[in-house]
Design goal:
Elements lengths: L4 H8 L2 H6 L4 H56 L3 H74 L3 H63 L1
Helix pairs in contact: 3-4
Organism: Gordoniibacillus kamchatkensis
InterPro entries: PspA_VIPP1
Keywords: Coiled coil
């Protein structure tokens, strides 16, 4: 199991390709960042352990190096005092510490190389994470803009301009019909009123003629 598996996945695959499969790009982006944060925590733990191993070997090889120097000084001091046997034993112990020093130094160099490699990878992960955070802001803004555009497009597609135009046209025809009916009704009403007046005129004209005739008869009678 690789510590940097998700990092490789993120750098090898395009973010946009991953978003194509996501129902909610914003949620997926947030999940990617959470995954990367978890990987960084895991990587930091691994780096810390490797640094601890590095320091342990460093301490051991330094201690062995100090013992090599110390036994050499002690062997010299024993010779100065004429104790060749003690000097020999000191040099034999020095040889053992020398072997330990060389082994611990070799292990330290390996541990330091691994620790440096992990440090570099951790730095790479953090840099990539920061880039992804910045890219997230851009992608979230683009996703929101795309959602808004989609909603507008859907609203426009369902707006029914043609249907509305046809409906308005039908209503306009209906209004014109109502206006025509109202006008026809007004004309009929006016015609009936005129006929009534003319008829009444004819009626009143007959009475007046009779009245005039009676008046003429009366005047003629008075003259007789």
């Amino acid at each position: 199991m690789g510590i940097f598996k998700r990092l490789r996945d993120m750098t090898m695959a395009s973010i946009n390709d991953l978003l194509d499969k996501a129902e909610d790009p914003v949620k997926m982006l947030n999940q990617f960042l959470r995954d990367m944060e978890e990987d960084i925590v895991e990587a930091e733990s691994a780096v810390a352990k490797q640094i601890a191993i590095e320091k342990k070997f460093q301490q051991q090889y330094q201690e062995a190096e100090e013992m090599v120097q110390k036994r050499e000084e002690q062997a010299m001091k024993a010779l100065e005092q004429g104790n060749e046997d003690l000097a020999r034993r000191a040099l034999e112990d020095k040889k053992e510490h020398q072997a330990r020093f060389e082994e611990m130094k070799r292990q330290y160099d390996l541990a330091k190389t691994n620790a440096d490699k992990l440090r570099a990878q951790l730095t790479e992960m953090k840099d990539e994470f920061n880039k992804m955070k910045s890219k997230r802001e851009v992608l979230v803004a683009r996703a929101e803009a795309a959602k808004a555009q989609k909603q507008i497009n859907q609203a426009i597609s369902g707006f029914g301009v043609d249907n509305a135009a046809k409906g308005f046209s039908r209503m306009e025809e209906k209004v014109l019909q109502l206006e025509a009916e109202a006008q026809a009704s007004g004309e009929l009403s006016s015609k009936r009123s005129l006929d009534d007046e003319l008829e009444q005129l004819d009626k009143s004209g007959g009475v007046d003629d009779e009245l005039a005739a009676l008046k003429a008869k009366l005047a003629q009678k008075k003259q007789s």
